[in-house]
């Protein structure tokens, strides 16, 4: 019935009250709709789309139905900010989701798996909704919805996962329950803060579209310093976008118990000195940057996987003590057979051989480098090799 905006609320209820076997019902843009009593007899209803129903604010009937045996609603879409989500928490918790029960998502496309889809105008009023576990956002129309606002989610005491795209301004304060946080596309410019005793374990900046500067990157890192349980940090930008980030010095203030760092696609990044204290790192990915000086990594002796492909590296001396290293990617660099290291000439491939014979290195990718003689490594029994 999408788009029949001239139908009165009474007429809509009259028509729909007899449609007891409906499974999918779209009422998009029905401006006159102010109540949905008709759903009371739709026990087979699986999907309900109420986007654009700007005068519909009361969905408590769904909450009442959620306690009934056999009520099958698995997908709900709303965008009216006047709807109080705290009145339909059980409904949300009972919906299906591609992620987890109690998940709230808002997407630009309706062609998504079942779950709860709401615009940012709705979810920004979420505080004190203590049953929602996840918010996932990819709704392009929300670019400026949070402009200048402070969104306090600390009352969402069950919220564990939060993903948001396109929101560019505003501030979000997360509850201590948050475990996974991902800012996509333009959302890297948001201000973020955390409740005390923050439990965040994973933070990601994904698919960045825009200029990440040293200043706004430092602002993000500063906000993460209170996250003492942080285990994984990643940031990558989409191709075609220029980023002026050239230093990771600000990262020295992060929890140094982090075990995984991935920062790639930053074409002006040269200074990685801020990583020198991460002695517990097991996975490090810095591919597709502009790095030549990697001496800061010599203390990262617990590394098991290291990806430095597509940089400007010439000297492998920093690998000398990485005996735990199992997988190494050095493709597309400037590595030659022999390099001058101070007063000494260093055979780069001898270091690789030593990591194989005395350590755990078994997977090596080192193609597209100006190496002439591969004899030192070509006869070793690699699990994975590319050279």
Explain this structure to me?
The structure is a single chain. This protein has 387 residues and is of the alpha/beta class. Helices cover 13% and strands 22% of the residues. The protein contains 7 helices and 21 strands. The chain has helices at residues 9-16, 60-65, 89-94, 120-123, 214-224, 348-358, 375-378; strands at 24-26, 47-49, 75-78, 103-107, 116-118, 134-138, 150-152, 161-165, 171-174, 180-184, 191-194, 202-208, 232-237, 260-264, 283-285, 305-307, 327-329, 338-341, 344-347, 363-365, 384-386. Strands 4-6-8-10-12-13-14-15-16-17-20-21 form a 12-stranded parallel β-sheet, with no helix packed on it. A 4-stranded parallel β-sheet has the order 1-2-3-5. Helix 7 links the parallel strand 20 and strand 21. Mean pLDDT is 84; it is low at 98-114.
